[in-house]
Amino acid sequence: MFSEKPMDSGQLHRRLKIVLISTLPPVPCGVADYTELLQSHLQARGHTVETITSNVWDIAKGFAIHRLLKMRGQGGVVHFQYPSLGFGAGLAPQVAALLSHALPTVVTLHEFSRVHLLRKMTILPFIFATDHLIFTSEYERKILSRVTPWIRNRSSVVGIGSNVPEPEGEIIRQQKTIGYFGTIRPDKGLEQYVELAEIMLKHDPTWNFLIMGVASNKTRAYMQGLMRLTAALPNIVWLIGMDMLSVSKRLASIRYVYLPFPDGASERRGSLLGALSCRTIVITTRGPHTTGDILGAVLIAESPAMALNEIVRLEKDSALRHTMQKKSRYYVQERSWSQIVAKHELIYQRIIR
Which of 97, 127, 161, 176 is the most exposed place for a label (fewest CB within 10 A)? Predict the structure, then answer.
């Protein structure tokens, strides 16, 4: 069983060599953003960290990564981040994990429950070849543990951190603005967000809707189609491809964010965490992996009409708005990057010994 017994101070302050295998920005993927921030925060702690990345992730690349790891991974930890949008159908991470099993290796499985069967099968090499598995939520670990119960003895849960920096200085909220933030792709609930804009246009046309996000090459056509569909709506503005500092400033300037995830809010939703980090009131949906902590930090609306009702209620109740902003701040503080890095350090130390 993996032990979380505290280490002595000498062990905890040991400087480590860490090699991350992942995509990085500008790949429009939350895993790429997460990896870049993890590297930055680990380096700030004094560790030597590099990320091996590529534009091609075929089997041949897996052999090439293994050769690099034989040179660069000795004496350190190899940490795979999987899956990532940039990997596509490539199997380079799996090949590298199988070939490099003699090195101390970790994999963070960012998603399992919702991926299709073939993608689930590609996770098997990580299960058998790596020393430790990290899940971003207990729900994801439970799902995989049902078919591979032995992984509980060598797995942990480390939640993701926000890729949106917290706003600095005084926050001045724009009234009557409802935002959306996240990757622009199907199955994110954008159609429901647009429906709320249509309903609000009839209820009170002075409200504005702000869509902030980025699309990959594969989903660009979907985004363009949605932009054409909303061109006739005067209350929707699209802001695509902003850097995270600009996103933070925008999120901090609006009062509400509506994130109607089809499968409900969960701990692996970086857009949810990003909005909460800016102390914006989030209205979202509930699903099978929506935790009690999330329910305490957001408001639930299972349809655009219900979201409208929540907004009307909030507009009439300043005390409720203040309470929700306090709850969102507390939720984010409990998932700070300092805590995430400390948990990673503990895992790395355990498998190196």
Answer: 176
CB distance 196 to 258 below 8 Å: yes
Superfamily (CATH H level) for 174-333 = Glycogen Phosphorylase B; (3.40.50.2000)
* H, E, C per residue of the chain: CCCCCCCCHHHHCCCCEEEEECCCCCCCCHHHHHHHHHHHHHHHCCCEEEEECCCCCCHHHHHHHHHHHHHHCCCCEEEEEECCHHHCCCCHHHHHHHHCCCCCEEEEECCCCCCCHHHHHCCHHHHHHCCEEEECCHHHHHHHHCCCHHHHHHEEECCCCCCCCCCCCCCCCEEEEEEEEEECCCCCCHHHHHHHHHHHHHHCCCCEEEEEEECCCCCHHHHHHHHHHHCCCCCEEEEECCCHHHHHHHHHHEEEEEECCCCCCCCCCHHHHHHHHCCCEEEECCCCCCCHHHHCCCEECCCHHHHHHHHHHHHHCHHHHHHHHHHHHHHHHCCCHHHHHHHHHHHHHHHHC
- pLDDT score for 11: 52
- The pLDDT, as a whole number, for residue 158 is 96
Residue boundaries of the structural domains of the chain: 9-161+336-352, 174-333
* Two tokens, residue 176: 């009557």
Cβ atoms within 10 Å of 41's Cβ, excluding its own: 18
Residue numbers in the chain where pLDDT is lower than 50: 1, 6-10
Q: Model's pTM, two decimal places? A: 0.85
The pLDDT of residue 268 is: 86
Fold agreement (9-161+336-352, 174-333)? yes
Task: Return the CATH number of the domain spanning residue range 9-161+336-352.
Answer: 3.40.50.2000
Structure tokens at 99: 């070939």
Q: Are strands 132-135 and 17-21 parallel, antiparallel or unpaired?
A: unpaired
For the beta carbon of residue 226, count every other beta carbon within 10 angstroms.
20
